[in-house]
Design brief:
Elements: E1 3-5, E2 12-14, E3 17-19, H1 34-46, E4 51-53, H2 62-71, E5 80-85, H3 100-114, E6 119-124, H4 133-145, E7 149-155, H5 159-172, E8 177-181, H6 195-202, E9 205-206, H7 236-239, H8 244-260, H9 264-273, E10 282-283, H10 288-295, H11 304-311
Length: 325
């Protein structure tokens, strides 16, 4: 496994981050078996992955509990544990959003579920139009000052919103976001026209979610067949990727994978790893076989000509709709 530093920090993270959204029971495609989840986590650690990403809303805390149980007996100093806050965790008032109350309450709840004294990277899952960004940054800064959080990050918003947040931190001395989680893959390149230029300019680390486009870039789906299994069978966002433009992207991926005696997933991840702005794509394997296949992407290098071939079928365009806001 290779390692890098997250953004302009000194925090060392593996070039692949283990996404833990699959660990739970909220969706039929998740791994609703803690023993199986633990086996995936243990193998990831064996492969040198030290970066794990979860969220409080993933199966309403189940994912955090699985991660907490898995790391309970490990050397915490070597691990980078990331989680998120924003989504609803109950039905009543103050159960969601980025108010000072909700952030601090949920940080304490996440710490309990994770069974740890601190969170390495605490991220806002979305932008909250109902809460001033100054209040959110103040609450996050408090958590850092109290030693409950080491770094703060963000995920999925409009570029101007992220720039505003960074500006407010610089202007008022709040803790600064060191990372961004955008949706980014060969099939979803809209953030090249939105968040990624901000991240590059501000030296913010990028940890893309859905780097295999919900499984589309693994090559397991076909043009002429309705998906009857996998995430696309129940997830509308995955099926939205079934466009002629994206099928052309997948054709290029499959062709290059054959030439390199690699898998489409490995080539797709290798493309992301070649991007200077990207630190660690978040992989979400549902089995050890998938995990080991994904890990093989770190050893694949692409030439400029090969990158051009993969990118040629698609022109990145960003809008509020494509940004999944």
């Amino acid at each position: 496994m290779e390692y890098t530093t997250l953004g302009n920090t000194g925090l060392e993270v593996s070039r692949l981050c283990l996404g833990c959204m699959n660990f739970g029971s909220a969706q039929p495609w998740m791994i609703d078996d803690e023993e199986e989840c633990r086996e995936v986590i243990d193998r990831a650690l064996d492969l040198g992955i030290n970066f794990l990403d979860t969220a409080n809303v993933y199966s309403r805390g189940e994912s955090e509990e699985v991660v907490g149980n898995a790391i309970a007996s490990l050397d915490r100093s070597e691990l980078v544990i990331a989680t998120k806050v924003y989504g609803p965790m109950g039905e009543g008032p103050n159960q969601g959003g980025l108010s000072r109350k909700h952030i601090i309450d949920q940080c304490e709840a996440s710490l309990d579920r994770l069974g740890t004294d601190y969170i390495d990277l605490y991220q806002i899952h979305r932008w909250d139009d109902s809460t001033p960004i100054e209040e959110t940054l103040s609450a996050l800064s408090y958590l850092v000052d109290e030693g409950l959080v080491r770094y703060i990050g963000a995920s999925t918003m409009m570029g101007w919103q992220f720039a505003k947040a960074l500006y407010e931190s610089d202007l008022n001395g709040y803790e600064r976001f060191v990372s961004m989680q955008p949706e980014y893959s060969l099939a979803d390149r809209h953030e090249e026209e939105n968040l990624l230029p901000v991240c590059a300019d501000q030296e913010v680390g990028v940890i893309p979610w859905s780097p295999l486009a919900g499984g589309f870039l693994t090559g397991k789906y076909d043009r002429d067949a309705d998906p009857d299994e996998g995430r696309a069978a129940t997830d509308e966002h995955t099926r939205e990727r079934f466009t002629e433009e994206n099928w052309a992207v997948l054709d290029a991926v499959r062709e290059l994978a054959d030439e390199k005696e690699a898998s489409p997933a490995q080539v797709s991840l290798a493309w992301l790893l070649e991007k200077e702005v990207v630190d660690a794509p978040i992989i979400g394997p549902r089995s050890i076989d998938h995990l080991e296949e994904n890990a093989g992407a770190v050893s694949i290098s692409l030439t400029d000509e090969e990158i051009e071939r993969l990118e040629a079928p698609k022109t990145p365009v960003w809008s509020r709709a494509t940004g999944d806001l």
